[in-house]
Design goal:
Order of helices and strands: HEEH
Number of helices: 2
Number of strands: 2
């Protein structure tokens, strides 16, 4: 049962890597967009500024909606960046002895 799961993961790896590679720029750009605020002059007498989200001008920076978007963006960036790296590190850790011995591992066979 465990071996079947490993084989399924091995077979799915190229597809998962392709999806991550294909969508990484789009997801990263959208997530980082939650941090880019643009400041404009709202009133000139007295001088008053208003900041809004560059990607969504209807969202005022430092508002509750902006805070929610920012938290969601942080979560997405952590999951999008860290989870695939953690899975890769786990796989490399599992096959490390076989790699050092220059032999096939239980994952590659």
């Amino acid at each position: 049962e465990g071996r079947a799961a490993l084989m399924a993961l091995r077979d799915a790896a190229p597809w998962c890597l392709g999806i991550v590679t294909l969508f990484s720029p789009t997801v990263s750009s959208a997530a980082f967009g939650a941090f880019h605020c643009r400041r404009v002059v709202a009133d000139s007498s007295p001088l008053e500024y208003r900041s809004f989200l560059w990607d969504s001008p209807g969202v005022l920076c430092r508002s509750g909606e902006w805070e929610t978007l920012r938290i969601a963006a942080v979560v997405i960036l952590i999951v999008w960046a860290a989870v695939p790296l953690a899975i890769l590190a786990l796989i490399l850790y599992k096959v490390r002895p076989a790699v050092l011995k220059h032999t096939p591992s239980h994952i590659s066979t």
